[in-house]
Every structure is written in structure tokens, then in C-alpha cells.
Amino acid sequence: MSFETVIGLEVHAQLNTETKLFSKGSTVFGAEPNTQVTFVDAGFPGTLPVLNRHAVHLAIQFGLAVQATIQQNTYFERKNYVYPDLPKGYQISQYRHPLILNGHLDILSLNGQLKRVTISHAHLEEDAGKLLHKFQQTAVDLNRAGIPLLEIVTSPCLSNTTEVITYLKSLNQLLRFLNICNGNMQEGSFRCDVNISLKPIGSSVLGTRVELKNLNSYRFIEKAVLFEENRQRECLLAGQPIRQETRLFNEASMTTEPMRDKESTHDYRYFPDPDLMPIFISDALITRLSTQLPELPRAIEKRLEAEGLDQQDDRDYLLTSPAILAYYDAVRSITQASPKLLINWIKGPLTAALKDRQQSFENISLSPQLFSELLNQLTTERLSTSMAKNLLTQLLNGELDSIDALSDDHSAGLSEQEIQAIIEQTLQEYPLQVTQYQQGNSKVLSFLMGQTLKNLRDKPVDPKKIQAALIKKME
Amino acid sequence: MMHTYSLAKMSHALQKKTISSTELTQFLLTRIQASLKINAFISLDADYALQSAKQSDEKIALQQGGALTGIPIAHKDNICTRVMRTTCASKMLAEFVSPYDASVVQYFSDYGCVMLGKTNLDEFAMGSSNENSFFGAALNPWNIRCTPGGSSGGSAAAVAARLVPLATGTDTGGSIRQPAAFCGVCGLKPTYGLISRNGIIAYASSFDQAGLLAQTAEDLAISLAAIARFDENDSTSISVDVPNYVEQINKPLRAIKIGLPHCFFHPDVDPAIQNALSLAIRTFEKLGATIIELDLQTYETWIPCYYTLACAEASSNLARYDGVHFGHRSQKASSWREMVTQSRSEGFGTEVKRRILTGTYLLSSQHFDAYYVHAQKIRRKISQDLQQALSQVDLLLGPTTPTLAYPLDKTQKSAIHHQLSDIFTVPANLAGLPALSIPAGQHQGLPIGMQLMGAHFSEALLLQVAHAYQRETDWHAQIPPAFAGADIGDIL
């Protein structure tokens, strides 16, 4: 008996709002425990929630980006359950009327075809706090309690780990380019749960599904899915029924294990939250939010291709983060350099130099104007590649604040006559190699080049010119 | 004879400086100490009160005082205050000190009121007799063997005994009006959304409203002004133009139409109460009112609808009391889950547990449609029924309660019996309408209250009608015999 895998994904994305979903608590990551908690977040007696409308706007923009229906009459419901990280004993969420319905995201499938992943719905809810386990005690940190989450749920339409990872990466990218979530899995602002079941190939009846949690990286997601697929297959082949349950991924053993201390099917007793008014979303608001949508990844790709970036790699590189793309666009709009030169320099020397300095494109200290000027001079051959790389270093170090100064400096190092003299001197030091070259051994040229540069004592020079001069002299 | 002064009279005297707030506060604090037996207060803070009184006197000296500056006030103990504990009359919060003030507390403080203490109530505002209090029952100043009513029993008793001219209460199914009726004082539950719920410890969110207890309609009008306003901290708070209540109540009363629902005058209502209402109706007719009898079709659904929805909301609102972040934490547990169940078992009284269990059942997925959804639909119908009636008349009149205040030792009545006695008061909470209970008579030494219920935001009219009634009658000026004198004697 052969089985096929059916997977649905639930992603919880923390929204980029300044304050929490129902209080004025700060959403900044990494603060000392319990320093970003208002009385509302902690569920103190008598406190009441007040909706942060910005979160609703961001959710609507997500809906627009995935061509979903915006549910214009919606409301919040209480999801009732007991857990130490849930101060009120309920989570304010949505259930019967989620804000976003029936969207989709197209991804590249295994066979190179476009696959449409159905997003059955997305809704807003508040995040819970965090439990920290230390020395056999558990401590509760409520900083995270109340942070706005957009829960994005697909239909069970995925069938293998490639599709799962591709979808998650595409979704992550979309959220970042929409500027509604920073997509950081390590910080917990992009979290994924997997619902997985097996069914006999060709059957239309879905198997019992298992929910997988505690999946903290793409790698772990992949491992968890493969392990679970296998586990379920073994069970079914042995005639054992699959238990509907939630299983946690164990990073140490790379297996999934049943969750302790939580009932497998919980009655959440959803009912409309009487502390909050229903929300009505006008056509005018949807239109306004639509015009404020940033450029989205698929559109960006088409544009980049039209502008001359015909390599997929290059386009993919620029789509790794909005900051990289923004930098590229800024430079591209003012530089004389070709898009190809620009992308090569960004991908290569600039990225490497930033990495060395622990900088990123988000906080890069080199202005697009200066970088553009550098590339301009490279294009007009006023600078050689190695000179440009040196310059880049100096610019990033803050040793220089303009290009002209340096490119003049460059040739102020040595005069043309001095350079010729040193070339002469080198050739006289190695007569044997000169003879070898003249007899047809071209490989010895690099040896001579090396010695010449050594004699030049690392003065900034144009290697191409040196090489040309050497060859000329030896003829 | 300061204790016999209404709030209006005290205000006048303070502003004229014939008495000082410090004098008045000290006087009342002494009276309170002499009346501890009626258990109207859970917490008192004389130092804090006298300090506030001093500040108010300084304001008055600088001619910066207003109508409420220096006026002593008591807050029901389910309303958060930073000074003194906020216990909700429960073991669960017996030691709890709120880190913030409720909005209504802040507003009264801004207006210069002097907080004397926190008053007794049924635990978490669940009950109609103040017997469900962890700190013991409050007693009715008219007859200490009787209940003062609930859940705002302590506030009603304190005002009736002239221990304080003004007290806040909360009203979810009648919890201000019923004790006001049993204690012979005026109690107002405003329109839902008019008064901020921020800092009001929740029982049933879509029913709860903070309100006021005082001696006269005029007193209510003066104090309502301080708290009838929009609060951005409460998403159910409404922004409306609020009239000048004091100005409004003194305008000549036009010829109004008063509706008498048949269901308010059924045979089970105590005959003494029916008589009092008949006399009151004649007084209203003398004042130019037309009386119109009408029917409220949804009558029999009021109580089940109220209890279904209130218990459902309560079961969720009280989920936060788990011993983790605040409140009572059991020492007997060996796991987290045990800690939660033990803390709640130890911390909550019987009535609270009953309502939580009921509410949990009603919200469960198997019963949700049959009970909760059904009740919501009925609530809509009840609301329409009442609003329809109020489109034909200016206000609805009837008894506040079917009986007089009943003896405490006989209140081993079933929970159902207690619930049924809320019949006249719950419709106002179901429909969010304002309702006022004022004294309308007495029988065998116990007060009788009548209820005026109006359309949304008709507080000014209700108070005006009540004020006109109180110019023709003096039920509101009656003081329980044991508390009539300046010195409180032996009140056995």
C-alpha cells in the first residue's frame, strides 16, 4: 500500500506595529523579562482591551497581496484555555469570521511548474507570553503577551517538504517586502506549525491529522515532516490507527513526540469578546490601503528582468531583503554603471565587506551616492578593479568621504617614470625568467608581475597597466 | 446634624465654608466606627481620608472648589483603587492592592471627593443579598436582621445609615437598584456605555455598569456629571453630548407619559409594594403625567436570558484568577495545574463557583448554539420589546423588587429563588437602558422602592421626574431610626 502525504501549514507572523494589539505596551524584541508589560497585557482585574488599528491595516494589506477577500464585518472572539503564559485565561483571537478569506500564493513546485497554494484564511490574535525553564523551575515572561499576530492558514494542499519550504520562504519574503513582519524565525516573529496526515494514493478521504509544533528552523521543519511521514507510514502499514494529537519536535533526537500536559482536543468555548466592538471595514479604507501597498516580489522580479538582470540568481539575491533591493534601486537610479556591474559588486565585494564589518544593508554606512560614484569611475576605467576594492574598504571604514580625492591620490603614489624604472629594475633582477618568457613561456609572466608589484612596495597601481608595460618591455 | 444633610446641602455648606471637609470627614469617620456592626465597609483609611479632606479644604479656601470638592464618598470594593485593597469581597483578592485607579475613582478624585473606604458586596458582584461576602454579610440599617440587598449592599447600607452622602456601586442585573430599594435610598444604573468600565472588576462585561447611590435625585444629578463621559481606555464607552443634569432636573416638568407594564404588577408582588406604587402613580398624575398600561411580551424570557449570558461571560472573565500573577495562591499544590485548581477552589465562594461552572457548560461546543446563541437572539428581542414600549411612553414605572428586604436567617432560599427576585431589574441591563430606583414608601419599618426606566441616555428625564416626585413626598428623607441621631446608639 502506498501513501501520499497531505500537509497544511499554520504560520504565526508577528506584525510590525509599535505597540501591542490591545494595549500600548511596546513590541520591541529582546528586552529584560517583564519590562514591556502593561496592566492590560498582564490581565489585571478591571483592565480592558483597546484595539490597535494599525494591526488591522497591516492584516488587510496582507489580504490584498494574496488576492484574498477582506471580511468587511468582523469581530474578535475569546479562545478560552488555561496555561501559565496566558494571563487572562483566554486569548483574544478570531474564529467564526476571520478578517481574511480565500487567498493564494503561487510557488514553484518540484517539477518546475507553478503551484497555487490556497490560503484558506488569515486572522488577527494576540500572542501569549513565554515560559522559561530553568533549574527545574518555570518562569513566566509576559513581554510577548499581547503582541499582534497574523495567523495564516493554508488548506491541506501541500504534499512534500520541497513545497513546504518553498511556500514558507515565499510567504516569509512576501511578509518582509510588505513590511508587515520582519520574518525572523530565531526571534520568534515567524513561527510555523505543520498539520500532516497520510492517505492511500488516489483516495479522496483524508487521514487523521497530526499537528507538529516547536519547529524553529527550515531545516527542523524538513526533518520533522520526514520523520512524521515515516512514523505515520509505519503505523498504518502495521494496521495501527493514527492518534489525532499535537506532537513536539525534539531537536536533540530529531523526532516528534507527543505533547504532555495539554489535552489533545480542547474545547475553546469561543464566543464574541464583549469588551470589544465589532469592526466594520469600509471600501474607502481598503482602497487607501491598496494604494499604499509596496512593490511586491513577483512584480519586482519582472521589473528587474526588464531592467536588464536576466540571471535568476541575481534577481533572487536582490529579493533576499527589502534593504538590499532598496540599495540596489537607489544606486541604479543615479549610476552610469550597468545593472550587471552593479549586481556583481553588490553580490561580491560589497556584501563581503559588509560581512567583515558586521554591517548589513539595513545599516550600511556607505551612501548610494558614493557607491554610485565608485562604480562610475570603474566604468570609465578611471579606477582599476583592485583600486576600487581598496577604495571601498576605505569608504566603509570611514577613512574617506569622497571619491575624487582618492582617485587623484592613487596616481599621486608614483609617477609614470618611477613605475617604468621599477619595471626595468625587476626585469634586470630576473634575466632567466625574461628569457623564458621570450622563448614562449607565458606562465612566467605572473612571477614577474608578482616581483614587480613587490618592488612597487604595495603602492596603489593599476595591475593591467603594469602587465602591459612588462610585456612591452620584454618584446 | 451634618449626617442628615443631603449631598447638595453638604456641598452648599462646604462652599459657603460653614463646615469644612475635614470636620465633615472626621464626623463621618466617627459614625462609621460606631456602626461597624452593619459591616457596610470592608476597608477604611482614616489617614488618607483626612489628608484628602485637607487638600479639598485648601482648594475651597482658594475659591477653586466645585460642587463635589470635599464631599466624602465610598467606593464599592469591586472598583479598583490604588489606596486600600480591592477585594471583591472574595478570598481570591483578599490581599489584592490594585496598581491603578478605576477611571470613575480618578474622576471623583479629580473633582475633589474624599474617599473614606471600600464597601461590602456579594463576592465578585454575584448575588442579591450581600451574604455571599468573604467578609460576612452587610446588614440592613432599617432592620439589622434583614439583608440590605445586593450586590452593592455595603454602599446602600452606608448611604442609608448616613455614613457617607455618596457611594459608587455596580449594576449587572439590579445590583444598585435592588439594594437601594431595600435600604430606602436612590440608586441609578446609567445607560450602558455612559460610564467607563475601566477598573471595574468584570462580572458580565456586556451588562456591568458603574452607578451611584445617594439620598436624592438631586444628589445623583450633581455626582453623575463627574463620571458621565467618554473614556478611551474602555472600548465599550460611548461618546455622547452629556446634558447639564442639575440644570435639567430643575426645569419645569412637562406632561409626560408613564408606561405601566402589566407584568410589573402581577399578584406575587407584595401588597404593600403595590399600594405604595398606586399612591406614587397618583402623585405622578397630580404632576401632570398620563398613565398608559402596556404589555411587555418578552417578560418570561428575561431571567433565563440574563443568567445564561451573564454566567457565560463571567466564566471567562474570572478565568484570570489562577494564582499565577495576582490574588490567592494555594500552598497545597505540587504541580502547576494543581496549583490553579486548588487556588480557585480555595479562593472562590459557592455562588461564584456555581456561576462559573454554569457559564462554562453553556459555552461548551455541544451547548453553545442551544444556550448562548439562542440567548443572544432573545436578548435582541427583549431589547426591541422595551425600546418599542419606550417609543410610546417617556418612561416605564414599576416596583424595583417583588418583595421587601427579607430576613437574613431565612435566606437559605434556593439560588433560583434569588434569581427570580431580579425580575424587574434585569431588563434594563439586557437592553442597556438607564434605570433609577427611588424610595416610594415603607411597610413595617422596611423601605419600598420604585423603578423608573427610560430610553437610552434619558438620565436627565428620569432624574427630573424623580426630583419632581421628591418635591411632593418625603420618603427619601427618612432615616433608619438607629441612625437618625448624631450619636449612633446601641443598634441591637
Describe the structure.
The complex is a heterodimer of chains A (475) and B (492). Chain A is 40% helix and 20% strand. Chain A contains 15 helices and 16 strands. A 9-stranded mixed sheet of chain A has the order 2-6-7-10-1-11-12-13-14. A 3-stranded antiparallel sheet of chain A has the order 5-4-15, with no helix packed on it. In chain A, 35% of the residues are buried. The model of chain A has no long low-confidence stretch (mean pLDDT 91). By secondary structure, chain B is α/β, with parallel strands linked by helices. Helix content of chain B is 38%, strand content 13%. Chain B has an 11-stranded mixed sheet with strand order 1-3-2-4-6-5-10-11-9-7-8, sandwiched between helices. In chain B, a hairpin with a 2-residue loop joins strand 10 and strand 11 (446-454). The mean pLDDT of chain B is 96. Classes of the chains: A alpha+beta (475), B alpha/beta (492). The interface between A and B is large, with 29 and 44 residues.
